[in-house]
Every structure is written in structure tokens, then in C-alpha cells.
Amino acid sequence: MASFKPSIPSGEVHVIMGPMFAGKTTALLRRIKSEGANGRNVAMIKSSKDNRYAVDSVVTHDGAKFPCWALPDLSSFRQNFGGDAYDKLDVIGIDEAQFFEDLYDFCCTAADHDGKTVIVAGLDGDYLRRSFGSVLDVVPLADTVTKLTARCEMCGKRAFFTLRKTEETKTELIGGADVYMPVCRQHYVNGQVLIKAARSVVESHKSKSGTFSEAAPVI
Ligand SMILES: [Zn+2]
């Protein structure tokens, strides 16, 4: 007869995604706090790449705080947190999940094998509306998926996308309202046209003056 391990409660994966300023971190914090208030052991993880507000706490755009582990990857969480402490954990929140390359494997192990409830919050798309990191990869693993919306900064309608206001073209550019704004579809498209126009002015200025040294960015 095969011997059976003691049964581990079934885990769950929940994904909260959307553009910047959609309240993803707020929704995650609310969920984690409510799980904690119900007597479950909770932990929060965020990427150590994002140190906009604080290293050891998750902070929403409106200032709410919660202690967390800032890590470069998720595979190091168990070791950092401690094996015994990890075994006692019920719920793990992951903020800014787009920065974790090992998100899929972590969610699989934590939910399928370790019986954890994992709540993932992150950007579904980057400023070019392309899939950002591994957030979309964990959708097939998820019990629930929630796409939150923000308010378009131009017209106040529902915003689904994040527009980058600067000319920087690398995908990972950490910033807040100084760099990004939430926009509706119409203003995303208009905004891209405006940014391209502004860039071509800069490009022509650049070729005249020769004071800029970086290569011409491409959107
Ligand atoms: Zn709009």
C-alpha cells in the first residue's frame, strides 16, 4: 500500500491586474489585512527593484502601509522567511508581480504543493500595452482574475492603460505620476501620437545640436 502524506489544504491563486493607479496594491492590502483579521498567517512580498516609497513595506499611492519582504526573486522567499515560518503561512501576497521572473513556478509550488493562498497584484501590460513580465502567465493557474481600472487623467473615463509621459524606452522604468498616467483607449492612442511628435522634435533638435548622446529611441 502506498503511504499518504498528511493532507495539505488546497491552495488558491488570485490575480489582481490593471494599469497603474488602478488601486491594485490597495485591493491586495485589503485582502491580506482581512485574511490576517480572520486569524490566517499572512506575508507580503514585493520586488526589491521598486524602492519608490520604502524598502520594508508595501505602500499604496495614497499612503497606506504594510510590512513586507523586498526580494529580487520569489525563489529566495522561503529561505529568507524561514522554512518553519513558511510552513505555517496561509496567505502570501505578491505586489508589483511583473518584476518577478519566477512568478509562475512560485505560484505553482505554493498553491499546488504547499497549500498556500497566493494573491498576485501587478501590471498586465507595459506602457506599450504588451504583456509585462509573467503576470499573464499565471492566469491559467488562477482561481480568480480581476482587472481593475483607473480614471483617465485626460477625460475622467475608465482607464485601462498606462501611458508613459517621458521619452525613456526601456520597459522597466520605475516611476509614479511624474512618469506615468492612466488613460482610456482614446487618450492612449492620442497620447502616443503626441509623444511621437514630441520625440521627432527632440530628434531633429538632437541632430542639429548634437548635445544628446543616446541612440534614437523607437516606440
Ligand atoms: Zn480619456
TrEMBL record:
Catalytic activity, as annotated: thymidine + ATP = dTMP + ADP + H(+)
Q: Which UniProt keywords apply?
A: ATP-binding, DNA synthesis, Kinase, Metal-binding, Nucleotide-binding, Transferase, Zinc
Q: Say yes or no: keyword Metal-binding present.
A: yes
An example Gene Ontology biological process? thymidine metabolic process
Instruction: Output the superkingdom of the source species.
Output: Eukaryota
Q: Which residues form the active site?
A: 96
Gene Ontology MF annotations: ATP binding; identical protein binding; metal ion binding; thymidine kinase activity
> What pathway is it annotated to?
Pyrimidine metabolism; Purine metabolism
Enzyme class, UniProt record, top EC level: transferase
**Coiled coil (residue ranges):** none
Claim: Metal-binding is one of the keywords in the record: yes
- This entry's Enzyme Commission designation comes to 2.7.1.21
Pfam short name (any one): TK
Q: Where does substrate bind?
A: 180
SUPFAM superfamilies of this UniProt entry?
Answer: Glucocorticoid receptor-like (DNA-binding domain), P-loop containing nucleoside triphosphate hydrolases
Matches recorded under PANTHER family: THYMIDINE KINASE (PTHR11441), THYMIDINE KINASE A (PTHR11441:SF12)
The family assignment reads: Belongs to the thymidine kinase family.
Q: What is this protein called?
A: Thymidine kinase
Species assigned in the record: Rubus deliciosus
- Which gene is annotated as encoding this protein in its UniProt record? TK1
